[in-house]
Design brief:
Low-confidence stretches: none
Shape: globular
Number of strands: 13
Number of helices: 6
Strand content: 25-35%
Mean pLDDT: 97
């Protein structure tokens, strides 16, 4: 089974680029499942019903999120609806809107898409190691477990990857919007990359107009972020999983311009 994971989609231009290129990329890599992080897909940041539907109509089977998932309160109903295969980080409080994982039924197999968030330099959520243990126990009969670990610190991403090595098929980091060159298969068969990167304006600071970020950092004043015009790119990784064991056999980092 081939799993395609796409890094954080940023703004309207990121959604548009995804719609233009995702189908052909899925076809080229013979992808069975496509997972897209959409938490920055709305103008500014956050995710809305419109941007979610754009991502799904592009060919995503599941959409993961992160620390901006609750930015738009009118999106809460989408998180609660069984109609939309969208997950929020599982280590938010249980009463928070949405669910922390999705089961994708593809007929000959089932795959669990788990969303988790780090706590180092992030919100003080429940311990992602403990929450991961509980979820994996619940999903012990699901062979393919794929995790989007939305986190700031590289060390935290690496640590949870080794902690869950052999217990999940894939752990792919998101949040930093910078694709890392460390795709690998860990000793017990888990596919891993520290960060998938982003999908959106290439000549930007993490998808944001550079002058906006510079003004914020230089003068420490609030600035309404915008997404710059110009060329876009799409970053992600393809993981090939063994149909019998669920372990990762191959990883391939991709960038589409």
């Amino acid at each position: 089974m081939n799993v395609l994971m796409i890094g954080d989609v940023v703004g309207k231009s990121g959604c548009g680029f995804l719609m233009k290129h995702l189908t052909s990329v899925k076809r080229f890599y013979s992808c069975d499942i496509c997972i897209v992080n959409g938490e920055n897909s709305a103008p500014g940041n956050g995710i809305t019903k419109d941007s979610l539907e754009m991502i799904l109509s592009s060919g995503a089977d599941a959409v993961t999120t992160g620390n901006h998932v609750y930015k738009r309160d009118n999106f809460y109903q989408c998180l609660e609806s069984e109609r939309y295969p969208v997950a929020r980080p599982a280590n938010y409080p249980e009463r928070a809107p949405g669910r922390g994982y999705i089961i994708l039924d593809k007929g000959r197999y089932k795959a669990a898409v788990i969303n988790m968030m780090g706590t180092s330099m992030m919100q003080p959520l429940d311990n992602p190691f403990d929450v991961s243990d509980r979820i994996i126990q619940k999903l012990k009969d699901v062979k393919f477990k794929i995790m989007d670990f939305h986190a700031e610190a590289t060390g935290e991403k690496k640590a949870i990857a080794y902690y869950l090595d052999g217990k999940v098929s894939v752990i792919a980091g998101t949040h930093t919007h910078v694709q890392t060159a460390d795709e690998q298969i860990l000793p017990n068969g888990t596919g891993y990359i520290t960060d998938l990167g982003m999908t959106g304006p290439e000549n930007s600071v993490l998808g944001v107009t550079p002058q906006d970020v510079i003004k914020t950092l230089k003068y420490h004043v609030p600035v309404r972020f915008s997404n710059p015009p110009g060329s876009c790119f799409m970053c992600g990784c393809v993981f090939t999983l063994d149909d019998n064991t669920g372990k990762c056999l191959k990883t391939e980092r991709i960038t589409v311009r």
